[in-house]
Here is the input.
Amino acid sequence: MNKTVFLCAGGDARQIYMSRFLSSYGTVYTYGIESSDNRTIKLDELSAMSEKADILVLPLMKCKELEFTAYDGTKISLEKLVPHLKKNAVVTGGLLSTKQIEFFSSLGFDVTDYFKREEVVIKNCIPTAEGALQLAMQEMACTIYKSRVLIIGYGRVGKACGNLFKAVGAETFCTARRISALAEAENNGISAFHLNEFYGHIGSFDLIINTVPSLILDKALLKAVAKDTLIIDLASMPGGVDFESASLMNKKVLHALSLPGKVAPVTSGEIIAQAVKNILTERGG
Here is the structure.
C-alpha cells in the first residue's frame, strides 16, 4: 500500500511539529515552514517536489484571501499549490474563509477545516488556559495564589481556566447567562453569579478572563473595573471587550489570540496532526 503524501505549507512553530508528527503516517513535504529535520522534506521551491500530494495541510489562516503567510512573513498564493496536488486531494486548514473553501471546492478538492473539529476545540482548551495563567503571572504585580479571578463564560475554555486558576490557589468566580452553567461551576467549587448581576461584582477582581466572543465588557462596565485589574480576553475576533474605551480609560487589557501556538507549539502541533490523521481515517485513507 502506498504511503500518504502530505504537503504542509506555511504557518508558525506549531506547523513545524505538526509536520514531524505527520511523518509517522507518510511522506511529508514542507513549504514556507521555518525548519525541518530528516523526517520531512523541506522545499525551497515547489518545483522540487517529486510527487503530488494526497493532502494539503494549511496553517491557521489569518486572512480571507487566496493566500497564506510563510514563516518569514512572505505571502504565498493558494493557486501556486494546486499543480502539486493529486486529483480529488484533501485540503485542510484552520479557520478557512468561505472564499478559500469555495476556491478549492471548485477545483474538485475535498475541503475541511481542522480548527472547527470537536477534538481540536476540546484539546486546545488546556494550552489556552495555561497560556492565560502564564500571561497573568507575567503581568500581575501580585501572586495568582489568593487573588480574585473572574471567568466570563463557562464553556470549554472557561471550565479549563476555572479549574486551573482554582488549582493554583486563586479565589475563582464565574459569570454566565445559562443557569445550568452556573450550577456546573458551583459543583466544581467555583463561585458563580448570573451575568445580569455583573455590575455589582465587577469592581472586586484582580484578574478578569473573558471567553465569550461577543461584547461583554462595554464602556459602562469597564468604568466599574478596578484601576489595577488585568483583563485577558481569550475570545476570537472581535473579542468581548470594548478595546477603544479600555485604552482611553488606561485599563490593562490583553487580547490573547492563538495562545496554544505561542505557549505550547509542540502540543498544538500534535493536536493538529492527530486531527489531520482523523480526517484521512474518516475518508478511508
User: Anything to note?
Assistant: The chain is about 35% helix and 25% strand. The radius of gyration is 21 Å. Residues 118-139 form the longest helix (22 residues).
